[in-house]
Amino acid sequence: MKNFLHSPSALFVVIVISFLSTPFRSVAQRDSSTAVHIGFIYPISSNGKQAASITNRFSLHVIAGLSKAETGASIAGVANVVKQNVGGVQMAGAANVIGGSASGVQMAGVANVIGGAAKGAQLAGFTNVTGGQAQGAQIAGFANVAGASDAAQIAGFANIAKKNAKGLQLAGFLNKGNEVNTQVAGFANVAKKVKGIQLAGFINIADSSDYPIALFNFIKNGEKSVAFTMDEIMTGIVSFRSGGRVLYGIAGIGYNFKDNAKAMYAAEGGLGAHIPLAGNLRINLEAVGQTLTDFDGGSYFKNSLRVLPALKFGNRFEAFAGPTLNYTSYDRENDYDFIKKYIWKNNSSKDFQGLFVGFNAGVQYLF
Fold it and tell me: What superkingdom heads the lineage (predicted)?
């Protein structure tokens, strides 16, 4: 006994062994619930082999715990496995696996997997999977998957809602849902009906979306067109314009028709907005970045704000023209003389910088 008093770790082991002794387990077997469930890994625990049929208010396991249900907190070094419902907080080094529904918070180093609905939040280093409706936030390093989502889904790679997503979907690569409010993704968003904004680094796809923001927007009830435009420095661009009722994306390539020492090729990308006026008349507001290059070190950069009154001819053709405000920059060694008069220019910087008023005009085929 004296040795145990001088060795706290040994004394702790004795206490734990006594706590997991047969008398306590026999009580657990008679009752369908316990206040405390402590163990190492199933079936080495205070509930023994009957653990899967017992509901606990508090569970603590060194490696993994198994139970019928949890009503308070459950903590495990590796995993919590619950056959039915949980309430409160579940914390695991690797995974929380819940067969039924969950209310409260689930935190896991790798994954939270819930068979039914979830009323609280799920936080996981890799993924959260909820079979039913996720009424709280889902935050994961890689992906969130839910039958439906009422709150935010935030993931490093992808968010998937099999039905509706009422909260924000924010992902590094892809968001997918049925009826959604707002989607923000590094690469693509996919939905049926979008009530708010779709913002993607490359492409948006939807049946209905008035405010898509991406280079390419394939909106079923939206508008797509192929346009040819010409500006004040004789750069002709063939562009694809796609979007919804209000916002649209612009992506194009072209050529500068001035008599340059070297052939100059163009590329542009930007965002536009339709403002209806009356009948077939509307204004297209556009913010566009354009680059001219000879592919041999010479580059000319221009950022433009365009105000383009547009008139439709029938259902397929539209002509537009209007003023532009342009900011340009290029290496002074190239000495481009596209523009003679500037509102403002910087004569002291390494690169030439200037602000000028120009124009843009074009025609497009709508489909």
Answer: Bacteria
